[in-house]
Design goal:
This protein has 370 residues and is an alpha+beta fold. Helices cover 19% and strands 26% of the residues. This is Phenylpropionate dioxygenase-like ring-hydroxylating dioxygenase large terminal subunit.
Length: 370
């Protein structure tokens, strides 16, 4: 995640711990080790670390007390929707917002059927997420639900939220013969506009896409992306549907998702520049790009505040130096750590945080040809 490796394990109570993966002793990968009770043991020399990152045992030294410097960065975790969410940063608990819960349908198992999938894409996370927020591309990229006959976008104002935005737009549906399987059967008759509600949150890098095909028939796709590195993204997805909720239809609906994501990757992998966010002055955006503009604006504000990792420096020194994402404990007690905190592209603004971001009004007007 974010170009770095981590080890996750459960303690005796089932709580998930997440630590930096590089052992502070001789640099071995802790994820290649084993669990010893509530601890993870390094595969090289057996050093044992608890869920808070403290080294509790050095086998070669017997019962000798481990010095304070024997610690590794540990990161807060939460489990939501069957996923483990990790807060990679050093903010204290009162400055960390809760992960977004944009899929209430997940718990409505009597009326909604939910399937899950994971995709790894050879694309930058900013480009991948902007693609998901772009409703205008549907007409040209997706064969099953695009409609090139009527690509005009429904331009309605977006509603800004604390950590993102939402919008509802209508689209002309494709011809019935474009659908196959159970959707082809259920949508065989001509129908009116498809209403698509879209919402994203920069928290957790996630979005909710909710098309209503006709009154009473809808599905929701909730996806959260993890940047593996600047050029690769892992996307976790849940799809809930209130039609054909029998398990027999799961494979068909999952295959539909895989095809659609494959179509997206085929286009996004060719986009240049490959790594974002792209400056506004270097693209000609229009009113149809307001969701992407909101997303990109928030990213630029975070970069200005010193929240961007200096990947060029990290990569240049990768073979000779270990950097780690700083943890909340490091912020409380910044001295006496073995590994150095990752460099950033700009100095950190001590007054900027998630709550400050939520309070700001910072959306520029996109250039328009209209």
């Amino acid at each position: 995640m974010l170009g770095f490796d981590f080890v996750l394990f459960r303690d005796g109570t089932g709580r998930v711990a997440c630590l930096s993966d590089v052992c502070i002793h001789r640099g071995a990968s802790l994820s290649k080790g084993r669990c010893e009770g509530d601890r993870v043991a390094c595969p090289f020399h057996g050093w044992e670390f608890d869920g808070e990152g403290r080294c509790q045992k050095i086998p070669a030294l017997g019962d000798t007390k481990v010095p304070k410097r024997g610690r590794i960065d540990s990161y807060p975790t939460k489990e939501i929707y069957g996923w483990i969410w990790v807060f990679l940063g050093d903010l204290p608990e009162d400055e960390r917002p809760e992960p977004p819960t944009l899929l209430p349908e997940y718990h409505q198992t009597d009326a909604w059927r939910t399937t899950r999938m994971v995709i790894e894409a050879p694309v930058n996370w900013t480009k991948f997420e902007e693609n998901s927020l772009d409703t205008a591309h549907l007409s040209f990229v997706h064969k099953a639900f695009g409609n090139r006959m009527d690509p005009k976008a429904s331009l309605v104002p977006i509603e800004r939220t604390a950590y993102g935005a939402r919008v509802a737009r209508e689209r002309t549906p494709p011809k019935p013969e474009a659908k196959s399987g159970i959707l082809g059967e259920l949508l065989a008759q001509p129908r009116g506009k498809t209403r698509v509600e879209l919402e994203f949150s920069i928290l957790g890098l996630c979005h909710r896409i909710n098309p209503t095909f006709r009154p009473g028939m809808a599905q929701v796709v909730f996806s959260a992306s993890t940047p593996i590195d600047p050029h690769h993204t892992r996307q976790f997805g849940l799809q809930s549907r209130n039609y054909a909720i029998e398990p027999d239809y799961d494979a068909e609906r999952l295959e539909g998702r895989r095809v659609a994501i494959g179509e997206d990757i085929a286009v996004v992998s060719t986009v240049r520049p490959a790594v974002g966010p792209t400056p506004f002055s270097e693209e000609f955006l229009t009113r149809a790009d307001e969701m992407e503009t909101r997303f990109r604006t928030m990213l630029f504000r975070m970069i200005e505040a010193g929240w961007e990792i200096d990947y060029a420096k990290v990569e240049a020194e990768w073979d000779r130096k270990v950097y780690v994402i700083p943890s909340p404990e490091r912020r409380k007690d910044p001295k006496n750590w073995v590994h150095e905190a990752v460099p950033m592209t700009r100095p950190r603004d001590p007054d900027f945080g998630w709550h400050a971001l939520a309070a700001e009004v910072c959306q520029p007007v996109a250039e328009s040809s209209e």
